[in-house]
Amino acid sequence: MEILKAEDLSFSYQNKYQTVHAVKHVSCGFEPGKTYAIVGKSGSGKTTLLSLLAGLELPTEGQVLFEGKSTRELDCDAYRRDDAAVIYQSYNLFPLLTAEENVLYPLKLKKVPRAEARDRAKKELLAVGIEEGEFSRFPAQLSGGQQQRVAIARALAAGNRIILADEPTGNLDISNGEQVVEILLRLAREEGRCVIVITHDMEIAGMMDRIYTMRDGELLCGE
Amino acid sequence: MEPYIGKRLLRRPWLSGLSLVLSGVLAFLLCFLSGYRQQQELRLQETRESFEIECVVTDLRGSKSSSLLLDGEYADFVLAEEGLAPYIRDLRLVKEFRYSYEPPTENTAGYDLLGVNCEAAIPAGAPGQESACVLLREDFFERDEDWVLVPERLYRELEGETLTVYVMDPAAYRPQYGGKKGLGEISFTVVGWVPGGGETLYCSYSTARRLMDSLSGKQTVDAISFHAAHNDELDALQRAAGRKFSRVQPNATSRISSIKPALTVYDEQYRATLAALEQNIARTGRLLPAIALLSLGAGFLICFLATRGEGKSYALMRTLGMTQGRMLGSVMLEQLLIPLLISAAVGAALGRPGPAAVSLGFHALGALAAAVKHVCVSPNAILRSQE
Ligand SMILES: Nc1ncnc2c1ncn2[C@@H]1O[C@H](COP(=O)(O)OP(=O)(O)OP(=O)(O)O)[C@@H](O)[C@H]1O
Ligand SMILES: [Mg+2]
């Protein structure tokens, strides 16, 4: 049963001089408990597809369905708060808040009781390999890999069932990158979350259950 | 309460400090100046209502204000409803007689006996002396009785007793008035005293009228002074007075001058006070909006500095599912928390919540103007900025 689905999805950027058709007639589905890689050349439309899936943009044609409901009708703010977490290549954390506070932030938005929120934050931070001594560090005092893991812990603590990551390992060295990918894979296998990762790294893509390849805004069916 | 507003503020101590100082100073200035303005307006109103503008009847040259020996019609005019009565208050009338203890001869000059219509007509004593006279009862001026105030020294001997003197009315010796012998004997009850030395006695104006009738058969008056009743109707007062009194003419010949009285209105100080107050009010009137504008500017500046580098944080908030409205609210709350607390404190301390709220309002407007631009970020900005 697919939790997220793209149906004949198209999107174009309109500016003064031209119209860029960044995504063209893309149809694909994503199931819980599975991992997906989206690969493709630079400019092929991967990030655009991701922002459509996250409800950050609305499609010009076709639709994105979350549990059968179009993002056009969905309250997209609530959708991102409760269901779909976006993880960027960098800058995923509030610089003025500590690691723990960053994880607690969405829980506060959801008005999760304090004690429960702290428990959940602690559990998820430990689960992604952040030690208790590092909870009170600010993002600037964490390594890139640690920052990405804190961002993942935040998505987990908030209970988001879909994780959309745009080159989450792009800024990391190999070992840190592997660590992050492993965590993402584990999330899908053990917790049944749907993980969608954009990557340039074919080795990482190879570890995913399914690879979608994009070229010039179109989706070539993968393995 | 939005998450971590307090912590975010504390972790940017410089900006928060700037916000504290600027909004505190501006709120203080606004409260203080509006208080000052209100006080000046009150003083202006008070001055208009109760400043005592002294008006004195003088000779035509304006050099003499006592011993005028004016015809009684001038006093009547001042007292009459169709004369000056509607325009004046605190009228003081003085009629001068001479008195002596023995029947006067050509060699005895005698002393002054002044008929006065109220306590204020008695010339003030030495500076610092509270009142010009000490009456044993307050209502003597209303009593139809021949009483007299004597110098302090005499009072100790004569307290409660009767004083009999010979009284002379100078009017009787004026060719145009003379008709009676001008001299008589009268017995007064001693009811109070006047501080200081001298020999001058004071009796009531009703006694003076009776004395004039019997001594010279002519009502005259030697000094007339009063205050304007309505300070904003000075022109009407001058116009009404013009029917009977001239304007002061410093160059008039002494003969004419002694016949024709003039009215001098001492309004320079009143007008200067009004002008000064009005100028102060106008100045603060210009300063207040300037300070409100400064509040606006401060709100804008601080919010601009605070939100300038935070675009990505705001995009992140949106990514985490915060609605645009809530985010604007959150940013505004973060921006206004310190100014709110400080202007509430300043408003309470100076007892002026209104201006404090105005200062906060302008600060908020400025902050809003700066916040809107940064808050309307698309979360996509982060995705894009990485490419
Ligand atoms: N804001 C925009 N306005 C106009 N065109 C845009 C805008 N953002 C992206 N594009 C264009 O849309 C196309 C797809 O861009 P997109 O960012 O989705 O590619 P991508 O696959 O993520 O590339 P990369 O691997 O470099 O991140 C590109 O041709 C790009 O130039
Ligand atoms: Mg991209």
Structural domains of chain B: how many: 2
Taken from the alpha-carbon principal axes, the silhouette of chain B is: rod-shaped
Residues in helix, % of chain B: 40-55%
Number of DSSP-assigned strands of chain A = 10
Mind explaining what this structure looks like?
The complex is a heterodimer of chains A (223) and B (387). Chain A is 35% helix and 27% strand. Chain A is α/β, with parallel strands linked by helices. Chain A has one domain (33-43, 76-222): Rossmann fold. In chain A, the strands form two sheets. In chain A, strands 6-7-8-3-9-10 form a six-stranded mixed sheet, sandwiched between helices. In chain A, α3 crosses α4, α3 (99-109) packs parallel to α5 and α5 runs parallel beside α6. The mean pLDDT of chain A is 91. With 387 residues, chain B is an alpha+beta fold. Chain B folds into two domains: 2-45 and 274-386; 54-266, no CATH class. Helix content of chain B is 49%, strand content 18%. Chain B has helices at 5-10, 13-50, 72-79, 152-158, 205-215, 234-242, 254-259, 268-308, 311-319, 324-350, 353-375, 380-385, and strands at 54-59, 70-71, 88-100, 111-116, 134-135, 147-151, 162-168, 183-194, 201-204, 220-221, 223-228, 261-266. Chain B is rod-shaped and about 120 Å long. The two termini of chain B are 35 Å apart. The site of magnesium ion (MG) has 3 residues of chain A, from α1.
